[in-house]
Amino acid sequence: MHAAVVTSFGAAPHYSEHPEPVAQGPDEVVVEVLAAGLHPRVRSQAAGSHYSSTGELPLVPGIDGVVRDPKGRIRYTVLDDTVMGTMAERTVIDLRRSVVLPDGIDPVQVAAAVNPVMSSWVALRRRVAFGRRKRVLILGATGNAGRMAIQVAKRFGAAQVIAAGRDTARFGELRALGADQTCTFDELSRAADVDVVIDYVWGEPTARAMVDMLTARADRSAPLTWIEIGSIAGPTAPIPSAALRSTRLKIVGSGIGSVPGRDFVKELPKLAAAVVRGGFDVRARAVPLAEVEQVWAATAGMSERVVLVP
Q1: Could you please report the per-residue DSSP string of 258-307?
Q2: What is the pLDDT along the chain (310 residues), one digit of tens a residue?
Q3: Burial (0-12, 13-18, 19+ Cβ within 10 Å), 77
Q4: Cα–Cα dist 161/108, whole Å
C-alpha cells in the first residue's frame, strides 16, 4: 500500500510504498482510510517536536481520521501514540477509540472539523467548571481551531465571547460565527474581565496579554482560568510572578496527559454528532495523499483545514 512516510524529523513526509498494517490487540482492526486531517498537531508529530513524541522513525503521521471498518461501517477514530498513523491507504485502529458515523456523511468535512472542535470542546468540558453565562476570551481566534472555539463556547452557553487575533481582515467572519467582540492583542484590556481564556498562542504575546489583562481587571479577586492549548508563538512564556500573586489566576493546560485518553473518548459521540449535524462552520480542502509533500509546507497557517484523501 501507499502512505505518507516521515524518514527525517523536520522534513516533509514523502509518498511511498509502506508495509501493510497488522492488527495485534483484541480490539484492533485494520481499516480503510477515507480522510485524514493535516492538523498543527500532525505537523509537530512529523517534526518530532510534540511533547508526546517517541522519537521513533520512520513514521506515518496522522492522529485521527474517517475510516471504513471491515464490516463496512464509517467511523471517526483517534489514534494513540503510534508510528502507524492515518495518512495511509490503510491503518490500524482501536475500536474503543472510535465512533460510528451515519451513512451519507462527508468524510472530508468530518475529518477537517472534529480535531479543531475537540481542542476547545474538551478544554471547556474537562479542564474548567464551565457554567452558563461565563465570559470567554479566545487568543488566536483567526486560526481554524480558534474559529471553532467561538462556536463551541457559544454552544456551551457563554454569555460573551471576545475573539482576539492579529488578522483584522478576518474579524467580520469571527463576528458572523458568534463573537460578541473582536480585538487585537494591543486592545486586550477590553477583555480584562472575562472568566476563561482559551489560548492557542502562548509565548511572548501571551505573557504581555496576561499582564495587560490582569492589571486592568475591575476585581482582581475574581477567578480567571487561563487554558493553554496551543503554542504557535513559542513553547515558553515569561510569566511574571506578580501575575500569580496579585490575582486569582489559575493556569491549566488541555491536551494529552492533562486530559486522560478515556475522557477524550467519552466526549467523542456528542462531539461527532454535533459536527455531522452541521453544528459548525467548517472550511475544508481535500488533497490527494499522493500530493502530501507538495501541500505540507504550502498550507501552514491557512484558515482552511487540508484533508488528505488516499
Answers
A1: TB-HHHHHHHHHHHHHHHHTT-S---EEEEEGGGHHHHHHHTTT-SSEEE
A2: 999 999 998 889 999 999 999 999 899 999 999 999 999 889 988 887 766 667 788 999 999 999 999 999 999 999 977 889 999 999 999 999 999 999 889 999 999 999 999 999 999 999 999 988 999 999 999 998 999 999 999 999 999 999 999 989 999 999 999 999 999 999 999 899 999 999 999 999 999 999 999 999 999 999 999 999 999 899 999 999 988 898 999 999 998 889 988 898 899 899 999 999 888 999 899 999 999 999 997 755 566 899 999 9
A3: buried
A4: 28
Look at the pTM and tell me if it is higher than 0.85.
yes
Residue 14 identity: H
My answer on whether omega of the bond before 58 falls inside 30° of 0, hence cis, is yes
DSSP 94-111: EGGGEEEPPTT--HHHHH
Cell digits for 182?
Answer: 473582536
Cell numbers standing for residue 97:
477509540
* Helix 107-126 with 144-155: angle, nearest 10 deg: 60
The DSSP secondary structure of 34-58, one letter per residue, reads EEEE--HHHHHHHHT-STT----SS
Q: Which residues pair with 309 in a beta bridge?
A: 288
Which residue intervals of 183-284 are DSSP H helices?
203-216, 241-245, 261-276
Place of cell 486522560: 260
